[in-house]
Every structure is written in C-alpha cells, then in structure tokens.
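Technical appendix A lists one of the benchmark inputs used to test multi-chain prediction within the project. The record comprises four sequence entries:
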Amino acid sequence: MKGKATSFDIAHRAGVSQSTVSRALSNSPLVNQETRDRIKQIAQELNYKVDKNASNLRKQRSNTVALLLFEDPSTDDSQINPFFISMLGSITKACSAANYDLLVSFQNLADDWHAEYEDTHKADGLILLGYGDYLDYEAKINQLQEQETHFVRWGAADPKYPGISVGSNNFQGGYMVTEHLISQGRTRFAFVGEAGTHAPEFLARFQGFTHALSQADLMDQFVGQFDAIFTVEAGLEAALELFAEGERPDAIVCASDLIALGVIQAMRQEGLRCPEDIAVTGFDNIPIAGFVEPALTTVQQDTKAAGITLVEHLLKHINNENTSDTLIPASLIIRDSSKPLTQD
Amino acid sequence: MKGKATSFDIAHRAGVSQSTVSRALSNSPLVNQETRDRIKQIAQELNYKVDKNASNLRKQRSNTVALLLFEDPSTDDSQINPFFISMLGSITKACSAANYDLLVSFQNLADDWHAEYEDTHKADGLILLGYGDYLDYEAKINQLQEQETHFVRWGAADPKYPGISVGSNNFQGGYMVTEHLISQGRTRFAFVGEAGTHAPEFLARFQGFTHALSQADLMDQFVGQFDAIFTVEAGLEAALELFAEGERPDAIVCASDLIALGVIQAMRQEGLRCPEDIAVTGFDNIPIAGFVEPALTTVQQDTKAAGITLVEHLLKHINNENTSDTLIPASLIIRDSSKPLTQD
DNA sequence: AAATTGGATTATGCCGATATAATGCATAAA
DNA sequence: TTTATGCATTATATCGGCATAATCCAATTT
C-alpha cells in the first residue's frame, strides 16, 4: 500500500464502515467486542495511527499544552536558570501522565509574547513560567483573560487575578532558613538578592527573612540587604560591596544558590572562611549545591509538586472548572555552609 | 460575534469569497493588493488566527518538530544533564527562527520510545538527543528508517547509518585540552570517565586524550583510565580509587565538568591542591565552571551551532534532501585549574 | 402477522482551511 | 463583432477523522 493508512483502509479490510473503525479504536461500547478486536488487530498490522490534525480539528481539542518560558533578559543565551529546567522536567512528566503533549517556547521578554498557541488551536492552554514580573505583565494577563485563553502562571498569587497562580512558598522558605541560622547561633545577618516588586520571589524570601529576624529580636543587628540578580557574578559583586561597607555579618542569606556561590567566591577573595567566619545559605538546591566547598545549605522548592499542580490546574481551567491559588511548601536542606559558630 | 472567527466570517465582512481570504492572508500574488490589504485589516480587527489543525490537515504539514530527550537512567529525575539544557535552548531558538514549533518529550530509556509524533502528523520530524547509546539503539533506528520517519540524532557519526548524525568533535576536544596541559608542563596523566562503547562521546574524548599523549611520547607515564558516569559523585569515587592505587598523576583529564568537580572534591579530601599538585580539566563548560575554586579549565561544545545544524539538517530531510554527518568543533576554555607547574 | 424494542452498524454532515479547476470581466487582437 | 488573452475572483473537491441521525435486523411483544 502507498502512503500512510487511513481509517478507510482499515474499514475496507475489516469489511465495515469507517465510522465503526473510529468507534472501535476509541473503545466505544457501541461496537461489538469481536468487531472491535478484529479492527484493532488490523489497525496494528497496518501500523495505523489516528491523524491528530483531523481528529483535533473535529474534536476542537488538541490534548496539548504550551509552555512559555520567560528568560531573564539580563542573562545571556546559555544561562538558563537551573530551577526552570527542573520545572520543565516535572511539567513534561505531569503532561505525559495526563496524556497531553507539550509545546515549549522560549519567550524573549522584550518582544511581544508569542502566545497564539491556543488561538490557532495548537494547544488547549498555556503555562507561563518565568522569574520576576515579566515585562508588561498586567497588560498581557488582561489580554489573555479577555480572549478567554486558558492559562496558569508560576508565581506568587496576585489578588488582582485570582485562581491562575501556583508558586513556591518563598516567604516560608526564607523564614525557615533564617530560623535555622539563628538556631545555629548566628546573630548578625545580611541578605543578598534583589528585594523589589519586579522580583516578587526574592522579595518574599526577604520578607520571610526579616520576619524571622524580628521574631528573634535580631533586627537591630541587621547589616543590610544588597541587590543582586540571580547570577554568580551578581552575588560576587554584591558581597564585595557588602564587605567594603565595613560592618561584617556572621550570616548571609542569599536569594538563590548562584548568588550564594558568588558570595562564597567573594569571601575567598577577602580571606574570609565559610562557615567559620560567615555562614552562607542559598535557595533552589541546584544540582551542584551539595558538591561545592563548603556544601551549601539551601532551600529546596518542590518542583515535582509544582509541575503536577500547574498541569492539574490548567487542565481544570480547560474543563471550565476553577482552581484556587496554591502555595507549595519548600523544604530546608542543611549542609556545611551553615555550621554552628565555634568558639575559637 | 460568538466563538472564534473563521475565514468565512472575514470573507463575509469583506464581501469576497472564503478562498480569496485564504489567499490574501498567505500573501498570494493572485489576489489584488488592495483586496489583500483590506482583508488583512479585517482579519486583524477580528483577531483572526488560522486554525492550524485545519491548515495542517489540508497541507499535510505541521511546521512542528519533536525533540525526544533521552535521560540517563542512572540519574534521578532532578539531574538533567546541563549540556542538554543548553542544547534545548539552542534548538528552540533555531526552530523558531525557521518558523517551526517544538514539541518536547522526555523519553524513558527503559520504555518503548514514544515516537509517534510524525505518524500522527503532530510533527514533521524528530530530533533525538541523548548521551551514550540509548538502549536498543539500532533496532529503533531501523524502525524509524523503515517507516520513513524524518529524523536526525545528536551523536558521533555511525557508518551504518550515514547522514543522520550531528555531534561535537569530542576527539578533537580531548586532544586539545590534553595538548594544553602538556604545554603547561604536565607529564603524568590520568583520565576519569567511562570509555566504553556505550558512552561513545566519552570514548572519543579519551581517544583524543591518548592521541595527544602518544604524540608527546608520554604514554609510558600514563597512570590510567578510571570509569565514571557523568555525575559529581561518580567523579569523586573514581578519583578516590585512583588515589588509592598509589601512582599519582600531575594532571587529570575528566570526561565532563561534573566529574571534574567530583575529582577536585576528592583531592580536597586527600589534602591535594589543584592545580599546584594536580591539574584538572573538565568538559562542557557548565554555567558554574568559571566560579568554582579553582576556576575550571574545560572544553566548550558549541551548542548554538549544534542546535542550528540539527534543525537545519532535519528540515532538509523533511524536504527530502540529504545531509552529511557533521562534526562541530569544540573550543578550549582556559582557567585556573590547569595552571603551569610551579617549582616550589 | 404486525408492531415494538434494542443492539450493531452505516450514512451523512461537518470541523476550517488550501489547492485546483472554473468562471467573470475588461482589454487587446483578429 | 468575434475570438483570444490575462487578471481577479469564485466554486468545488479534499484532507481524515468524529458525532449525530438514520437504518438494518434479529428477538420480543401484542
């Protein structure tokens, strides 16, 4: 036979109508068990696969979701945030478990979003994933809602747009790691990482941090907060600035692992030991966190739960059900960089 | 108006036939410039987007490629090889530059490949990306070729299947970094990384390594090759084994950056300094390679060229043109871990 | 014997675009 | 005036499934 087999070819061989073939292959109880088996058998022999374009066109459903990944414009091509990779993995798995395919698209923040996947019926919905507040955030969300696009976003809940967000509990993570450092005997804290409204994740971590400090009555010894985006370089520079200012902390809480690595690097340059002189903690638990010197104490986001939840919520939206904003708890990974102060 | 607009709606408003709308929107010279502009205008007002399912069905083309990512079964979920991430990024970009969408699917090596994207017409071709020889490699390749699936694979050229491979020049990379170490005055070499047929990339690196050694007449001082898969842990263990065996090298060439980090970790445990006692080099130039202590000398694969070439070759296959196997040159990134031997 | 019921199957329309063939119409050539 | 030539547009068939309504037929009921 020429070309790929169609359901007509199978119908012909099986001596039934094409309709019956379609029904049989979708396991419809409307068709007799025997005929069903016979048809499936023939379909397999011909290596028949339903044409998704035809099927989707008729069903007006693609069983596909599109993942839009927003890159931080401040970093170059090769530097993809390791955290997103982990999310990508878990989202892919959650999709395939739900029998959905996944389209992936890296979005350049500067450009207009390339979010036509649902308009063109290539996907049934979108997952928006990025750090910080992607450019023109509100305008875009409004537009998506106006067009009745189905979507969920990764990030802190936004009271203006309820029911579309899933995010890590960054506040709790920042609180938890700070509390841990306090219990280790640290008292003079600094925070490295941007804490503005355009980096809401980092801001929440910072707020958890200060909350822990106030609870322990340590705010009067707070050394300060130093801006750094999420790269190693930024952490290094921020730390150098911190050391230049004079007042030396005995613990530095960083908004990400990469920043923490930069801070440790800066300490080395300044002849400071970690954790003996200053404890340092990160956030994300990237793959190498446990293998740097010293092994990094950090906060792990539950990317598996995150991916599953995002997909689950999106599928509910697609079925016109509502979901409520979800905060996924983070967990503390204790390693060497936060060892207790020793009296020496 | 209800629902999404179709080309009929536009035809109606523009007072032309639906055929003309279709032509106008695809910029066919068959339709008058004025009418074309008018139709486009109306289409924009109605926020009309062509239905890809209908379009693809008719055209028998999806303008989509599927990326199958094969994970190493020896690592857990969270550990995705950083090199692949970089490739994923460049492939995505190359696709969007060519106006193709990208479906991403993580394949579990143990299972049957889930490679029906072309059979179902969801994609026009496949890109296979994984380290080592994915399980049942030949059987699967045969099957794909039999079904006339369009595909390219990442990896060394295989004489049995010409024209489907694109890979880094691992031999040249291994040779280059070894030559560099020799020029720095190192003479007693060891290699850490698997060098068997089921890890062809690593094997090629090892072969480049030994080639450089023989050229410099240093093979009689070769300490040995020690197996390690691509994780930090594996590198650490292999190095400990190496040190236990007695004969100490003054340079260790590693098959990947993660392995190199493990080796450096092991040296630290043994009280050995890098690069003073032993120089260490990696492979891949992962994001943190420049920020560990000491900064890691490594070989960088040109992922950008790789992604572009893979996509380019696949698109040629889709258009029934042939391509020839391509080796992409790697480049040397010299940092501190390979500093020259000092006389002290 | 005629009418009813229900399970199994078939006939038909449609999803929304694109490509090919056909038509209309103005202008140029015979 | 008639035929021919092009350009612009329209009519129609088609891509390959799925869903609804229609039909067929055997087993019951009346």
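Residues 16-20, 23, 30-32, 35, 54, 56-60, 121 of chain B lie near DNA strand D (CB under 10 Å from a C1'). The domain at 7-50 of chain B is CATH 1.10.260.40 (434 Repressor (Amino-terminal Domain)). Comparable benchmark entries are summarised in Table A2.
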